[in-house]
Automatic annotation (TrEMBL):
Source organism of this protein record: Chilo suppressalis
Family from the record: Belongs to the cytochrome c oxidase subunit 6c family.
InterPro entries: Cytochrome_c_oxidase_VIc, Cytochrome_c_oxidase_VIc/VIIs, Cytochrome_c_oxidase_VIc_sf
Annotated region described as Disordered, given as residue ranges: 1-22
Pathway it works in: Energy metabolism; oxidative phosphorylation
Keyword Isomerase on entry: no
SUPFAM superfamilies for the chain: Mitochondrial cytochrome c oxidase subunit VIc (SSF81415)
Membrane topology: Single-pass membrane protein
Compartment(s) where it occurs, according to its Swiss-Prot or TrEMBL record: Mitochondrion inner membrane
Name listed for the protein in its UniProt record: Mitochondrial cytochrome c oxidase subunit VIc/VIIs domain-containing protein
Swiss-Prot/TrEMBL keywords: Membrane, Mitochondrion, Mitochondrion inner membrane, Transmembrane, Transmembrane helix
Length: 105
């Protein structure tokens, strides 16, 4: 684009000034930046805690629950209690007496 010939008055520009160069980087959005970052961090924290809870439930609680269920299903508690009573481990049962002797009478 060419300019017209100069006018006799040097104070009045004849050509408009050139447009400024575009910025190299975009400007950050400062309005609401703190709230946007806070929301992002909260969403990440909620997702992380939910996934950690789900992993603990499936890999920690369910196997423990199954182990307790198996223990109580296969346990011979009466036999173990009679054996401990015969050995004198229980304070309330004298060493000479046994749970089996009471039921034999």
């Amino acid at each position: 684009m060419s300019c017209p010939p100069p006018t006799p008055n040097p104070c009045t520009p004849t050509c408009p000034p050139p447009a400024p160069a575009p910025p190299c980087r975009t400007k950050p959005i400062m309005r609401g930046l703190h709230m946007a970052q806070t929301k992002s961090v909260l969403i990440q924290a909620i997702l992380l805690s939910f996934s950690a809870g789900a992993l603990w439930y499936y890999f920690g609680a369910l196997p423990r629950r199954a182990a307790y269920k198996d223990y109580y299903a296969k346990g011979e508690f009466e036999d173990w209690a009679d054996e401990m009573a015969r050995k004198g481990i229980f304070q309330s049962v004298p060493k000479g007496s046994s749970h089996d002797k009471k039921h034999d009478k």
